[in-house]
Specification:
There is one protein chain. The protein is of the alpha+beta class. Helix content is 31%, strand content 31%. The chain has helices spanning 54-61, 78-84, 91-109, 125-147, 170-176, 235-243, 255-275, 309-324, 327-336, 339-345, 354-378, 546-572, and strands spanning 2-3, 10-11, 155-167, 180-188, 193-202, 205-215, 218-222, 229-234, 282-291, 296-305, 382-388, 391-398, 403-411, 414-422, 429-438, 441-449, 454-467, 472-479, 487-494, 500-507, 518-525, 537-540. A hairpin with a 4-residue loop joins strand 16 and strand 17 (454-467). Helix 8 runs antiparallel to helix 11 (354-378). The termini are far apart. Residues 27-59, 61-94, 107-120 and 338-342 have low confidence and may be disordered.
C-alpha cells in the first residue's frame, strides 16, 4: 500500500491515480497496511406487473426491496468465496464507473416522465438491451405510486398528529395523556407555495405553536408563544445582505418541468451508452439460463455486453465530452440544486458553479479513461441480462472476481426477487423480497444477510386498494433477529372522521430490562390539511443586518425560555 501525496488516503501500490482525489501517484510513499475491505450494500427495488391495471402495479410495487445471494455466482459456497478470495482485488471497484452511468439513467427512469424507449418491436438489439431494464424500473415506480408509497401530486396537504402511551408505567402515562405533537402542511407547487404549522401540547397545555412558509421567493416564520410578530422577507435579498452571495431561490413551479428535463437528459446518456454497443461486443442468444442464487432455470433471450478496452476508453472519453458540454444538465442543476451558491452563502465552502462542477467531473473521467478501461478489460468486465417473453429475469454486472446481480423468479402467483453482491475484497451480501397477491392483498417478506447469518427483515400484508397520505393500509411486522423477543408491529388503518391511523406497537420490552412491557405510538394523518398562515402583525426582514437577526434571535430565545420555565413549574406541581 502507499499514501496519496495530496489527500493522504491509502491506495493500492499499482494505482496510477488516487481513487479518492484523482492525484497522480508517481512517487507516493509506500506504507504497510492491510488491504481495506470494500463494503457493498444491496438496495431493494419493487416488482410491478404489466403496466395498465393499478392493482397489478401495486402488486409489483411492494417488491420495492429485492436482493441477493444465498450463493455467489460461482458454483462454490459463500464460505469458500469469503475464505478463498484473493486479497487486494479491485474487481468491485471496476464496476463503479459503469454503475455510475446506470444511476444517471435510473434518475431519468424515476423522474415521473415518459419512458426512454417505447413499443419494443422496432427497437434495435442495443436499444432492447436498455429498454428491458428501463421498463422494469419504470414498472417499479408505477407500482410504488399506485400503492401510495410515492405521491407525485403537485398539490399535497395533511395534518399529522403524534400521540403515545406506555403499558406498565402509570407515571409515564401521566405525562403522555392529553399530550401530542402536530404537524400541518400544505404544498402547492403550481403556486410556488409551502406552508407548515408545528404545535406541541403537554398534559393538555399548549406548549408551542410555530409557523413557517415559503411563497414565491419569500420566507416567513412566527412563534406566537415567544413573540407577537410574523417575520417575512425576500429570501434572495436576505442571503445577499448577509453573505454577499447571489443564491437561486427554490421554484416549486418548475418541479414538473424539471422531471421532464431529467428524462430528456437521461435519454441523451442512454443514447451514448447504446452508441458504445455493436454486433461484436453485444450478443443475444435464446438459450437456457440459471438464476444461481434462487436455484431456478428458464429459457429466454440472453444479452451479453462485453466491451473491449478500446470500446470502454472511447465511451468514457465521449462521456467526458458530453458531461463537459451538457448545458441542459448544467441548467437543471442550477434550477434544482443550486448547491454551490448555497454552500458558499452558508459558509460551507467556495462557490463552484454547476458548469465548474461538471467541468471537474469531465476532467476526472477523461484523465482516468485509459486506465479504467484497461483495468475493466483486464478483469473481464461484462454486463448480462436475461429476458423471458419480454419480462426481465436477470441483470448481472461482473468481473473475474466480483459481481452485482438482480434475479427475478416467478412461480404460480409468487414472485421472488433478490439482489446479490459478491465481492473478493469484502463480505458478500444479499437482500430478497418474496411476495404474492390474493384477493387484492399483497403478502410477502423481506430478508437478507451474507449467506451465513440470514435474517427476516420485514413481513407485510398490504391492501393494494387503499392508502393513507404516507403509505398503503396493512400490517408490517419486524422481529428482533437476536431472539430476545422484541416485536414491532405497524398497522395502517382507518382513523376517525376519514383520517388514517399509523399505529406502532413495540412488545417484549421487559426482556431488555425496561420497566415496562410495551409502548404504543400513533400517527394520525388526514388526506387534506388545515395549515394556515399566522395572524400576527407582519414585519419585513428582507433588509435585516446580522445584528438585527442576532437581536431577533435573542428576543425569541428569551420568550421560549419563559415558556420552558412555565412548563417546568406545571410538571413539578
Amino acid at each position: 500500500m502507499k499514501n496519496c501525496p495530496n489527500c493522504g488516503q491509502e491506495v493500492q501500490d499499482e494505482e496510477k491515480f488516487c481513487e479518492h482525489c484523482g492525484e497522480k501517484l508517481e512517487g507516493a510513499e509506500t506504507v504497510s497496511a492491510e488491504a481495506s475491505a470494500t463494503g457493498a450494500e444491496a438496495s431493494a427495488a419493487a416488482e410491478s406487473s404489466e403496466a395498465g391495471a393499478a392493482t397489478e402495479n401495486a402488486v409489483s410495487a411492494a417488491t420495492a426491496t429485492e436482493a441477493a445471494p444465498a450463493e455467489p455466482q460461482a458454483s462454490y459456497s459463500y464460505a469458500q468465496t469469503i475464505e478463498e478470495a484473493p486479497a487486494g482485488k479491485k474487481g468491485m471497484k471496476l464496476l463503479i464507473p459503469v454503475i455510475a452511468v446506470i444511476i444517471l439513467l435510473c434518475a431519468g427512469f424515476f423522474a415521473f416522465g415518459k419512458k426512454l424507449f417505447s413499443g419494443g418491436l422496432a427497437l434495435s438489439t442495443e436499444q432492447k438491451f436498455l429498454h428491458y431494464q428501463e421498463k422494469y424500473l419504470q414498472d417499479k415506480l408505477d407500482a410504488m405510486v399506485a400503492l401510495g408509497f410515492i405521491n407525485e401530486d403537485l398539490k399535497q396537504s395533511s395534518d399529522m398528529t403524534l400521540t403515545g402511551e406506555i403499558e406498565g408505567s402509570d407515571e409515564m402515562n401521566k405525562y403522555l395523556k392529553d399530550s401530542q405533537i402536530q404537524l400541518k402542511y400544505d404544498m402547492d407547487a403550481e403556486k410556488n407555495s409551502f406552508i407548515m404549522n408545528l404545535s406541541a401540547k403537554i398534559m393538555g397545555t399548549d406548549l408551542l405553536e410555530g409557523f413557517a412558509d415559503y411563497r414565491d421567493g419569500k420566507i416567513g416564520f412566527a412563534i406566537p408563544v415567544a413573540d407577537e410578530h410574523y417575520y417575512r422577507g425576500d429570501l434572495k435579498t436576505i442571503m445577499k445582505n448577509l453573505t454577499e452571495q447571489d443564491i437561486v431561490a427554490p421554484d416549486l413551479k418548475k418541479s414538473a418541468e424539471n422531471r421532464k428535463r431529467l428524462v430528456e437528459i437521461s435519454k441523451k446518456y442512454g443514447d451514448l451508452l447504446v452508441g458504445s454497443m455493436n454486433k461484436d461486443n453485444l450478443t443475444v442468444e435464446k438459450k437456457e439460463f440459471d438464476l444461481k442464487n434462487l436455484k431456478e432455470k428458464y429459457t429466454g433471450e440472453v444479452y451479453v455486453f462485453k466491451p473491449t478496452e478500446e470500446d470502454l476508453k472511447n465511451f468514457y472519453e465521449k462521456l467526458a465530452d458530453t458531461v463537459e458540454k451538457d448545458s441542459d444538465l448544467e441548467s437543471l442543476l442550477e434550477d434544482v440544486y443550486a448547491t454551490s451558491t448555497w454552500d458558499s452563502a452558508l459558509g460551507m465552502g467556495d462557490a463552484k458553479t454547476p458548469k465548474d462542477q461538471l467541468s471537474e467531473l469531465a476532467k476526472e473521467i477523461r484523465d482516468n479513461a485509459a486506465d479504467t478501461a484497461k483495468e475493466m478489460a483486464d478483469n473481464e468486465f461484462q454486463w448480462q441480462i436475461a429476458v423471458v417473453d419480454g419480462d426481465l429475469r436477470q441483470v448481472l454486472l461482473s468481473t473475474k472476481d466480483d459481481s452485482f446481480s438482480l434475479e427475478i423468479a416467478k412461480k404460480d402467483k409468487t414472485v421472488t426477487e433478490q439482489i446479490n453482491v459478491v465481492s473478493s475484497s469484502s463480505e458478500n451480501m444479499y437482500v430478497k423480497n418474496s411476495y404474492s397477491v390474493k384477493d387484492k392483498m399483497l403478502e410477502g417478506s423481506i430478508s437478507g444477510g451474507n449467506g451465513v447469518l440470514d435474517v427476516k427483515v420485514l413481513e407485510y400484508k398490504i391492501d393494494t386498494t387503499k392508502h393513507s397520505a404516507l403509505m398503503p393500509y396493512g400490517t408490517y411486522i419486524v422481529e428482533d433477529p437476536t431472539g430476545m423477543g422484541a416485536k414491532l408491529t405497524l398497522t395502517v388503518a382507518d382513523g376517525e372522521k376519514g383520517s388514517s391511523d399509523h399505529e406502532i406497537v413495540v412488545e417484549g420490552l421487559q426482556n431488555y430490562y425496561m420497566p415496562f412491557s410495551s409502548a404504543k405510538i400513533n400517527l394520525n394523518t388526514t388526506k387534506t390539511g388545515t395549515a394556515t398562515l399566522p395572524k400576527e402583525a407582519e414585519v419585513d426582514i428582507s433588509n435585516y443586518s446580522q445584528e438585527d437577526f442576532d437581536k431577533l434571535s435573542e428576543t425569541i430565545g428569551n420568550g421560549l425560555a419563559k415558556v420552558a420555565a412555565t412548563l417546568q413549574g406545571e410538571l413539578a406541581g
